[in-house]
Design a protein that fits this description.
The protein has 276 residues and is α/β, with parallel strands linked by helices. It has 12 helices and 8 strands. The two termini are 37 Å apart.
Length: 276
């Protein structure tokens, strides 16, 4: 099954280009509370999208889902509403999926699921050591629909030099296996166009397939709108980039089917031996 690709934007024309090119989810990023402080010198994307952006993206797309990353669980302040008010607002604006970032306790996830109350899909973002270590308990919470593993903050939390160290050292694999055993869909990290990235994207995509991932964020480098201004070039970048990713996915799927077939044959032969 093709990986569900997600792209972060609050621009209707870009959302439409992304959707028509094969992006499955338009990602509205409202998270800002505490993000700049904890990611200090990291060259990561720091958006501050709004509820109005959620509504605009919902109106701009036809079949793509609108995913909204809200702020970590918080009370109301002089500057911002509470988590419950924020979630109510994004649901009303049309969010199909709501992502909760920077989880520090299982109780936060329980509160989040209760606040959403079945009005949208829920996606806890596992990006702190606390949430990674509590994943078994999080997966047992009724109403958790999907899991996403965020490598930027998680690598900071584990004092890694490079976020994909978590892929190489087995951390991501362990977390994915926990989700797989519970039957809850999961994804991780970000992917660029083929051939791009410090760890070239094709290696990362193959790991998504090996680990059974169902979703991935298209990274800023896939189409950096700060550098690419011409709408025609943006369009061709999306079309060509996603075409390349889907072609590689087809190759991965064929190889996975080979091993799945072998697994079924092994089971069949072993069963016949035991029954004989």
């Amino acid at each position: 099954m093709p990986i569900k690709l997600m792209y972060i934007t609050n621009r209707p024309e870009i959302a439409q280009i992304a959707e028509s090119s094969g992006v499955d989810r338009i990602f509205v990023d409202m998270e800002y509370i505490g993000k700049a402080e904890r990611q200090g010198g990291l060259d990561s994307v720091k958006n501050h999208h709004t509820v109005a952006d959620v509504k605009a993206m919902k109106e701009a797309v036809e079949s793509a889902e609108v995913l909204v990353r809200v702020n970590p669980i918080h009370e109301a302040t002089d500057d911002y509403c509470s988590s419950q008010e924020e979630i109510d607002a994004v649901v009303k604006a049309g969010a199909d999926i709501i992502m909760l970032p920077y989880i520090r306790s299982v109780d936060e996830v329980r509160a989040f699921v209760n606040m959403v109350d079945g009005r949208a899909k829920t996606m806890p973002l596992i990006e702190t050591p606390q949430s990674a270590e509590a994943l078994d308990e999080i997966l047992d919470i009724p109403g958790v629909d999907e899991i996403y593993i965020g490598l930027n903050d998680l690598s900071l939390g584990y004092h890694k030099k490079f976020m994909f160290e978590l892929l190489a050292d087995g951390t991501v694999e362990t977390l994915c296996l926990k989700c797989k055993l519970k039957g809850i869909p999961y994804g991780f990290g970000g992917i660029a166009s083929l051939g791009k990235g410090m760890l070239p994207s094709e290696y990362v995509i193959r790991e998504h397939y090996r680990l059974g991932s169902t979703s991935a964020i298209l990274s800023r480098s896939f189409c950096n709108l700060e550098k690419v201004r011409h709408i025609g070039i943006v369009s061709s970048t999306f079309i060509d980039g996603i075409k390349g990713i889907r072609a590689l996915e087809k190759e991965c799927e064929e190889k996975i089917n080979y091993f799945r077939k072998n697994e079924r044959e092994v089971a069949k032969i072993v069963q016949s031996i035991c029954e004989g």
